[in-house]
Amino acid sequence: MIHVAAAAIFNDAGELLLALRDKAQHQGGLWEFPGGKVEPGEDVRSALSRELQEELGIEIDQSATVPLIQVPYHYPDKSVLLDVFRVNRFMGAAYGREGQPLNWVRLSDLSGYQFPAANRPIVNALLLPSAMAITPQLQPEQYSGFCAQAVLKGAQAIMLRAKHLSEAEQVRLYQQLSAQCQEKPIIWNGSVDIANRAAVSALHLSSDRLLQLSHREAYNGRWLGASCHNEAQIRWAEKVGVDYITLSPVQATSSHPEVTPLGWAEYSRLVSESSLPVYALGGVSMEDLAPTIQAGGQGIAAISCFC
């Protein structure tokens, strides 16, 4: 497996730097995140710094560089491990030192660019929120207040999980909350069939529903996530092609005291071996957000800390 250090580099305007691969290269003619091979015995951060100096003429600030995602990916002719970092500060003016075209783009415009298949999880990781609130069991009229409160506490997305209500009630609630919280995505925890009929744009599957799904194309919406609790479920989520997963329980929870938590070491190991953005779920709070990201996770998903 070829180990590659890559970077999602942002300027002061919040724009992301993309580079165009030469047509003679593997996956040529597609846009990519700058970087290059990690040499044997070389530290990945040192490799990233060296490659970006050689390719772009910039010096990255390591104190403003954080892990984004690791993507092991197998093409028919080669296997790569993309070790991707988010670079929030650098010195110098980036230019294509090897003649490669560069472009600064807004995240909202990424859909207009074509990337190698291995880069899709990177794009998703950049677009997905880092803090997701999951609704507790409430009366229908209480969900609006919970969402407003969760946003004030730092939630960047809300997962509507209301299995005590009928599916028709859940769909109405999803539509109501989507209209109310237009600046924050609402994700419905439900079934593919109902989501397609109701034109739900963001769907989350339970682990049971995940294992019943045979391919990503069965769902018509933009975002598809799933709950995973072990390595086998993660592998299935990757095979199906979901956009992200939650992995739980990371720590002990009062709601499931009988379940042995994974612990942070096991969470980190499973994240490093997954090609998907992975949220930590179970006994986590906003205080765990930075450690989760340092472990390579996408962020946290939680209930109690947003109540």
Keyphrases for this structure?
17 strands, alpha/beta, about 300 residues
Question: Quick summary of this structure?
Answer:
It contains nine helices and 17 strands. It is an alpha/beta fold.
How would you describe this protein?
There is one protein chain. The chain has 307 residues and is of the alpha/beta class. It folds into two domains: 2-118, Nucleoside Triphosphate Pyrophosphohydrolase; 131-306, TIM Barrel. The chain contains nine helices and 17 strands. The longest helix has 14 residues, at 167-180.
Number of contiguous helices: 9
Please give the CATH class of the largest domain. Answer: Alpha Beta
Enumerate the strands of the largest sheet in spatial order, edge to edge or round the barrel: 10-11-12-13-14-15-16-17
Low-confidence segments: none
Number of domains: 2
**Total number of strands:** 17
Strand percentage, roughly? 25-35%
Class from helix and strand fractions:
alpha/beta
Overall geometry: globular
N-C termini distance: 44 Å
The name of the CATH superfamily of the largest domain reads: Aldolase class I
CATH-defined fold name of the largest domain: TIM Barrel
Q: What's the CATH architecture name of the largest domain?
A: Alpha-Beta Barrel
Average pLDDT over all residues: 93
Order of helices and strands: EEEEHEEEEEHEHEHEHEHEHEHEHE
Main beta sheet strand tally, sense and closure = 8 strands, parallel, barrel
Helical percentage: 25-40%
What is the rounded Rg? 20 Å
